[in-house]
Amino acid sequence: MKPNSIFPRLSFLTLLLSTPTLALAGLEICNDSTATQSVALGYKKDADWVSEGWYIFEPGQCLTVLTGDLKNRYYYVTATADGWTFDHEDIAFCVSPQAFDITGDTDCQARGYVTNLFRKIDTGKTAKDFRYNIGPYTRPETPAAAPPGTYGEPYSNAGTFQECAIGDGGSYCSFYADGFLIYVYDQPETPAHLMDVMRGLAPGAPISVEGDMTAIYDSSAELIARSVTTRPWTEADSLLDAMQGDWQSLDDPAETLEITGAERVTRYNGDYITAEAISIQDWCEDFPTGARYLALREIETGETACYGIEMPEGDRIELIYVPRGNLLRYRRVQ
């Protein structure tokens, strides 16, 4: 249960119970979040359980909610703010939408109160004073994802993560799927936590993506993401991962390859030659299925090519150009 589901508008909680200054001993709570938080406290007082609130905390504000030497090891806290959720621990106390000081933690509804869930503060066995930050346990609520088709053509596919960067259109993350480079821009329609997921991925990571396709171009597309998850690694994913890095031709040392994610850049004597989207697949046009092929599509022209691929050693790649059987050999550059 989310605390702010009980208190839908914090603006009605206007009474500040206490505005104490910093004390030498006591329980101090700090709001290190970016939202104004209303905080309630629960603890054992003599033989009774009591709860009291609301203490209003501006962002960055600290208040000593209990003064004097602490008498208990454990105290309990909850916080609520418009559009935020609090990570409670299913520990129930009675509360009220207005300022309250309640004795007893049972029969809340029968006594005209409501039940809210708190989390435990462990001050230690001998602490006389303690500071507690609520920031790690409260965060903005994740907005519900828009239904498929809200922003464009519904899309669902497996892909290979490429990168997150900043371009002319702003901050984005991208992945390859079916030879297309698909951009997911950092904009309100894509939940922020999905951008964070992608920013934590390495190039070449296998992912599954759902969303709405908003634009399609010759070799790229734009997507509003609704879901981004990692998927199980396949043999093709593992082979692509093993190919990541820099390679030099054994037949012509002036030729080098840079493989990052699902892209291959070819250089000659250090000069850029071409960039290609690559994928590992078990088929290639009319050639036998079941073998391992490296499929390439030149990013600028769209021209395609296909090679049989072997890695007899971790630092060697052998490519066989399928139509003519030419053997190309490369070694890893450390």
Mass-distribution shape: elongated
Whole-number mean pLDDT: 89
Domain count: 3
Catalogue the unreliable spans. 1-23
Distance between the termini: 53 Å
Number of strands: 24
Q: Tell me the β content.
A: over 45%
Count of helical stretches = 2
The helix/strand class is mainly beta
Q: Radius of gyration from the CA trace?
A: 29 Å
Q: What fraction, in percent, of the residue positions are helical?
A: under 10%
Q: Largest beta sheet, briefly?
A: 8 strands, antiparallel, barrel
Numbering strands along the chain, what is their spatial order in the largest sheet?
Answer: 17-18-19-20-21-22-23-24
What's the quaternary structure here? single chain
What is the helix/strand order? EEEEEEEEEEEEEEHEEHEEEEEEEE
Signal peptide: 1-25
Keywords: Signal
Protein name: DUF1036 domain-containing protein
Pfam family, one: DUF1036
